[in-house]
Amino acid sequence: MVPVVRSLLETDLYKFTMWQALLHGHPNSHSEYEFVCRNAPSFPLAELVDEVNAQLDHLCLLSFNDDELAYLRSLRFMKSDFVDFLAVFRFQRKFIHARAEGGTLAITAAGPQVHVMGFEIFVLYIVNELYFRRFDQAAALAEGRERLLDKVAALKAFGMRPAPRHPFEFSDFGLRRRFSSAWHDEVVLRLTAEVPQYFKGTSNVYLAKRLGNVPIGTMAHEYMQSFQAFGVRLRDFQKAALEDWVQEYRGDLGIALTDVVGMDAFLADFDLYFAKLFDGLRHDSGDPKAWGEKALAHYAALRVDANTKRLVFSDGLDLETAFGLYRHFADRIMTGFGIGTNLTNDVGLTPLNIVMKLVRCNGQSVAKLSDSPGKTMCKDETFLAYLRQVFQHPAA
């Protein structure tokens, strides 16, 4: 077996930041996660089940080494007691199960949240790499290099145009759906070397450490969703999550995720207090221009200078889409772009659209009411209907 996972550090930064906040604020919570493939693969993913289980066995043997822990301690928002926790942490195999259900690959993780939340990113890139190992590697990499060459050329050409008020900046968000670790390395190395004026970092903490890049990330949906089950009034879960984040990070990691129950419901909770404390907002579903205009209108209504804030776009982006959004907004607010699959799995093959999402916390259902059709994930229709009613979110 050729291991897919090289290091426990090779996960997205926001896993560590959410992990720390939940360890400090809710160390006893219990959670359940489920793997889902949203598109049709070229062969049944159930064929991978034995290989996936072998890779999970390997993952659960790994621990953080002293050099990796020292790197995490060097990040000013990582606290000493959390890194001490990671020093003795190992994934527990009993908390995760992969099995074949017909042609479907079913993967579930359930247990104490601080012991199972970390599985997500590893599971996703394990499945991806095992899947794409079955295709012609040489042909895919040749095509990927041609496309990467075109991307670099497009970035250099874009830089010759008149600059708006704020610069164009993008980062790699492609760990979870990458073609392979070797290709991910090659992409990030090339972008770091050739377009450092635009390429500002990677969500992959392992690569950031290796290459001297900035690790990028703040929070994901699971952090906000967890607060639906943390004993606060459901109507107040977003405000409780944002407040806990502010108290944990005291001004660091100030980009808030907006689409757990839709942008309108988020802005209703994102009052002047939060608008001043957070550096900006992240888009992950719905029409990005409409979302950005709502954000700008909200800042204007609060009399907050939007030029001191940032909009981060991260929903299925490619460079051309990012360029268009940049031209639309960059004279009015700072922007940032997290590009994932189109950087790390643009090799001429159809990428998998896979996720591993939080579905229950502390014995009750949690959900995301996405602004994009197909992204809502919750099996409990009663809870979903109640959540829609509480936040006046239209049915998809």
UniProtKB/TrEMBL annotation:
Transiently phosphorylated on a His residue during the reaction cycle. Phosphorylation strongly increases the affinity for substrates and increases the rate of nicotinate D-ribonucleotide production. Dephosphorylation regenerates the low-affinity form of the enzyme, leading to product release. The modification Phosphohistidine is found at H221. GO terms for cellular component: cytosol. Its EC number is 6.3.4.21. The keyword Phosphoprotein applies. Residues 168-394 form the Nicotinate/nicotinamide phosphoribosyltransferase domain. Keywords: Glycosyltransferase, Ligase, Phosphoprotein, Pyridine nucleotide biosynthesis, Transferase. Pfam families: NAPRTase, NAPRTase_N. It is an enzyme of class 6 (ligase). InterPro entries: N/Namide_PRibTrfase, NAPRTase_N, Nic_PRibTrfase, Nic_PRibTrfase-Fam, Nicotinate_pribotase-like_C. Residues 9-128 form the Nicotinate phosphoribosyltransferase N-terminal domain. Pathway: Cofactor biosynthesis; NAD(+) biosynthesis; nicotinate D-ribonucleotide from nicotinate: step 1/1. GO terms for molecular function: glycosyltransferase activity; nicotinate phosphoribosyltransferase activity. It catalyses: 5-phospho-alpha-D-ribose 1-diphosphate + nicotinate + ATP + H2O = nicotinate beta-D-ribonucleotide + ADP + phosphate + diphosphate. One of its GO terms (biological process) is NAD+ biosynthetic process via the salvage pathway. HAMAP family: NAPRTase. Belongs to the NAPRTase family. Catalyzes the synthesis of beta-nicotinate D-ribonucleotide from nicotinate and 5-phospho-D-ribose 1-phosphate at the expense of ATP. This is Nicotinate phosphoribosyltransferase. It comes from Pseudoduganella namucuonensis. The lineage of its organism: Bacteria, Pseudomonadati, Pseudomonadota, Betaproteobacteria, Burkholderiales.
